[in-house]
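Suppose a colleague, Dr. K., hands you the sequence of a protein chain of 249 amino acids and asks what its three-dimensional shape might be. Before reaching for any lab equipment, you can write down a predicted structure in token form. Begin with the sequence itself:
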Amino acid sequence: MTTPPAAMTPARRSSRTALVAVVLAFAAGATDAFAFLQLSGVFTANMTGNVVLSGLVDRPGYGSTIAGIITAVVVFAATLFLALRFMSSDNPTERTVILLVLAAIAQAAIFGTWAVHPGAASTVAVVALIALSTIAMACQTAVAKRIEGASGVTTTYVTGTITSLMADAADRKPQPVGIRLAVIAALLLGALSGAVLMRADTLYGAALPILPAIVAAVLTGRTITPSRSPARRGSQHLPAGAPNGAARR
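The predicted structure, expressed as tokens, is then:
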């Protein structure tokens, strides 16, 4: 007789989803570092920055980057909408993992493209890579929004996290200070790591966001609580009225 695995406690599940948020923040920092430094100065996680950049008409290279900025904002909004509709539950589910796997695939596609053709020689190539990167970030942002929406934590919008941190402090409300500070630190560390790696080879910068995307998918997959325990699934094959141990005699 085997004992079914115990369900994850709410505290442990909350701890793991918080860790996922930190990992996704690192991914966002690394992704934005690569996008900004290699894809014509465009952000693919920070849409606030893109909106500001779109208004800086005297910025050097403005004409060649506005297409990428518009692509990033439009693709991010559209993908985020579809991802949030797809992941309707605030609790991690199989659909959450699917979104994170999709993000990892998009990041891997960028890495593969960059490995074959280092650098983006044309505007079309730049825009295509920006779109892929933005899809990845929108999927991850949707996940972060669902699993940590109640805590005021965002993995791509540091202004919002700082605002929530200070607002709750001013109002003397209990708040998850540790996770909020960890997310901010992870975003910075991701950007710093990407910038340092790209000094050696830009391919390393393209590869870096893949790892946290995979880690987040694995962590989220292990957070999901099975809808049915093995014992319950086995009992469905027993004849009506038979005792639970009948099948094991």
